[in-house]
Amino acid sequence: MLHITLPDGSQREYPGPVTVADVAASIGTGLAKAALAGKIGDKVVDTSYLITQDSPLSIVTAKDADGLEVIRHSTAHLLAYAVKELFPDAQVTIGPVIEHGFFYDFSYKRPFTPEDLVAIEKRMAQLAAKDEPVVRRVLPRDEAVAYFKGLGEHYKAEIIASIPSNEDVSLYREGAFEDLCRGPHVPSTGKLKHFKLMKVAGA
To answer: Within a 10 A sphere around the Cβ of 123, how many other Cβ atoms?
Structure first.
């Protein structure tokens, strides 16, 4: 039996390995719907993460600081997804979470304009409304480099090439867009309901 210890100290038993989403669902449908991620000790993981041994677990929702971090992180990916839909020739670089939100850097033949920003935000809302699942997969580093080179994403391939060759890298896909990322991410784009693109800067 697998034992999961919840934040209130109560324990739940499962016959075998269980995902964070399964645990949330076993607690209640409301929590299952609100779950954005899980926290095992100090590590925040996807709801699809498979727990294989006795563990402490808290379910991360939008009310938690970790939940806000996951939302911002996932919204940065949604931004990149929207940009690639509208400007297929744009190259994606990095898109980290910052103190009051997130940003994403792109390489494009011209700077983006305020009008572009409006169009990108609108496309983000459309993609979020499609509620597409966000799916993680793991590749060996060299395979990931070749994959992104094949997509024409040379900046991304360069970033991955700087990772030690013996390390695997995780990729997250939503719809037609896939990006390198450690994660975790929200389980689907439909969890991203509130966002605003504030400014654009071009170098």
So the answer is: 18
Q: In whole angstroms, give the CA distance from residue 49 to residue 92.
A: 27
Sequence-distant (6+) residues with CB within 8 A of 160 are 141, 144, 145, 148, 169, 180
Is the domain defined by 2-60 classed in CATH 3.40.1190.10? Answer: no
SS3 32: helix
Of 163, 145, 148, 133, whose CA–CA distance to 92 is shortest?
Answer: 148
Residue with tokens 């324990």: 11
Rounded distance between C-alpha atoms, residue 197 and residue 111, angstroms: 15
SS3 for 176?
coil
Q: For residues 139 and 172, what is the distance between their CA atoms, to the nearest angstrom?
A: 11
Q: Which two tokens stand for residue 122?
A: 């609108």
Q: Which CATH number fits domain 66-191: 3.30.980.10, 1.10.10.10, 3.40.50.10860, 3.40.30.10?
A: 3.30.980.10
Q: For the segment 53-77, what is each residue's pLDDT rounded down to a tens digit?
A: 999 999 999 999 999 999 999 999 9
Residue 82, sorted as left (phi over 0), alpha (psi -120 to 50) or beta, turns out to be alpha
Kindly give the residue spans of alpha helices, DSSP state H, lying in 87-193: 114-129, 141-150, 154-161
pTM of the model: 0.91
Q: How far is CA 34 from CA 37, 63, 73, 173, in A?
A: 9, 9, 17, 21
Strands 177-180 and 43-45: unpaired
Contact criterion met (CB below 8 Å) for 160 and 171 = no
